[in-house]
Amino acid sequence: MKKVTINSVAEYAGVSKKTVSRVLNNEPNVSPATREKVLKVFEELNYKPNPIARGLAQNRSFIIGCLYDNPSKSYITRVQSGALEACQKHSYNLLIHPCELRGQDLIDNVEQLLTTSRLDGIVLTPPFSDSKELIAFLKQRKIPYARVASAIEGDDSISIRSNDEQGAFELTEHLIKLGHTEIAFIKGHPDHSATENRFSGYQRAIAKHGIDFQPRLVAEGNFSYHSGADSAKAILDLDPRPTAVFASNDYMAAAVLKLATQREIKVPQQLSIAGFDNAPIARHIWPGLTTIAQPVEEMTRIAVEELIKHISQPQETPFQHVLEAKLITRESTQARSNS
Amino acid sequence: MKKVTINSVAEYAGVSKKTVSRVLNNEPNVSPATREKVLKVFEELNYKPNPIARGLAQNRSFIIGCLYDNPSKSYITRVQSGALEACQKHSYNLLIHPCELRGQDLIDNVEQLLTTSRLDGIVLTPPFSDSKELIAFLKQRKIPYARVASAIEGDDSISIRSNDEQGAFELTEHLIKLGHTEIAFIKGHPDHSATENRFSGYQRAIAKHGIDFQPRLVAEGNFSYHSGADSAKAILDLDPRPTAVFASNDYMAAAVLKLATQREIKVPQQLSIAGFDNAPIARHIWPGLTTIAQPVEEMTRIAVEELIKHISQPQETPFQHVLEAKLITRESTQARSNS
DNA sequence: CGACATTATGACACCGGTGTCAGACTGTAT
DNA sequence: ATACAGTCTGACACCGGTGTCATAATGTCG
């Protein structure tokens, strides 16, 4: 199996390299006959262009980088799966790069990544989607990027998010309609914009239904299971104890459920619990968690597709889009008991 | 910020490109003085070699591919994290490529991957680590590869695994020592070699303790939560019902726990449940799952490090290694009650 | 001191593509 | 027939490195 290069194709077809290149890139100004002939030789020799050589000539790598720093493994998995789908469709590859937002040398780290990998573009997932420093850096370096699940408005870059505020509003309203008025809330990581949005949705819902907002019912989390466990302790120790808990993601909700079960507080009879994200764990535990399904894969897929589109021909108008979140009810929430 | 290439460095330092290249690659036969001088210019101009150009000249990409087809997201996350660690250490990048083992065109798919990405090497995770077809293909194409958690012996390639058989043996023995004799077993995916190994460990332990092997207690799973739920139903419907269940991974064990809880079978008082892997879910549910901790990250990290080592200078003797698995006891198992 | 091995360096082709530009070949209007 | 625009094609340099080889400089030994 000898190597098949553009030269061998050109020779075999009796045309110049450049013409072969033109056919490869679907450039105009190639006669139909020539194009046919070359395409046939592609088949015959089973020719595949070398992406590295292409990359060198065009200063591209055909690689998209995905930056993340997220305690939720399932979120990352979903992000990857959406990004991969888009990449494969357009013959790009996906390079994953976990790193820390708080690392003092975030910029250095990304700089390093860029120089060693020559990425064609970067997908920023939370909390990077909202990092002004990083965004400024990428802009200055003229690296195309797309932001997933960010709340920053008025930016002129590609951005896809889902409606966190509305989702949280609906979920809270669901709890209220079940008769709950003392609804505890566990906030997410302060660096993620979703955290504020979800909290706003919660507040809007209780306000709409004339329920007083009680700061004592709010706990600070950071999306990790561990932080959920801490918040759970604080909340379940409250007196009077709330009848429902809304955690900003399913991991933290699972932690609440675990502690409640340990303390023999019956869920949902004595305590309703709800999460956010519709992570796998929401249906892997009993009772299953009522939650908000966020289209994470789809968001990321769209973000990467737009990014790739942007790379091949920069758009004037930035693509910005908001997807809807959807309420999923399971066994962990029920009407408040009269006890 | 102008582009700094090897040419500008050479010019600035007053030497030839080739000498710069020599310094870059730590080649011998460069006088200390020259080396110093060039290194200083690197600093001064902040020069970073272009990996794409390098790749073209050396026919390398500095990218390692990771193949997987695994229903357990957390397993994949752990695999990635180990692989990433090794890659970053050696300035390689990691490209992830999920695909289906059973896909009729697995080979085509990988072929495609290789031609579009020019990977320097591939890490095979289960079930690919045991795919004879794929291994034969990679061997023929002379693509370096490393196999993670495979059971095939006598192969002359890099292979790292953990001791599944021993782990399962210890866990089973733990249950036996708690007084259980009717221990149900849920098998994993038939394509994964770990499945047979874990099953053997189970059988060896009960045999050692003079317990009769009962085929009725064995259910077929495939490592997915869903398959665990099906097996759980079969097992909990048995009469007499076993007093303990050993599932081949934690997801399936979680499914057993969920069903048991739904049916108000008390765990661990009426039923002990154990899993395998020490996945996050094992400690995110109540009661926490007794399980076997497998060093997935470490296995993968070592596999990738050896792979990279092998790429830069092929070894004569293949690196093969077995890591130990460790029993972790949590609340889901306890001594059999006398009822 | 001459013969020879060793070290240090650079010129140049090459990896496998793409960009630029010039020139040949069409077709159409005058 | 002539001028001119538009289409098609190839020669050649170039992307930013590395491999090969020749040659210059240095060291070693009899």
Automatic annotation (TrEMBL), chains A, B:
Single GO molecular function: DNA-binding transcription factor activity
HTH cro/C1-type domain segment(s): 2-48
InterPro entries noted in UniProt: Cro/C1-type_HTH (IPR001387), HTH_LacI (IPR000843), LacI/GalR-like_sensor (IPR046335), Lambda_DNA-bd_dom_sf (IPR010982), Peripla_BP_I (IPR028082)
All residue ranges annotated as the HTH lacI-type domain in the record: 4-58
Gene3D superfamilies, per the entry: 3.40.50.2300, lambda repressor-like DNA-binding domains
Official protein name in the record: LacI family transcriptional regulator
Family annotation (Pfam families): LacI (PF00356), Peripla_BP_3 (PF13377)
PANTHER family reported in the protein's UniProt record: LACI-RELATED TRANSCRIPTIONAL REPRESSOR (PTHR30146), LACTOSE OPERON REPRESSOR (PTHR30146:SF153)
PROSITE patterns, alphabetized: HTH_CROC1, HTH_LACI_2
Originating species: Pseudoalteromonas peptidolytica F12-50-A1
Keyword DNA-binding: yes
Keywords of this entry: DNA-binding, Transcription, Transcription regulation
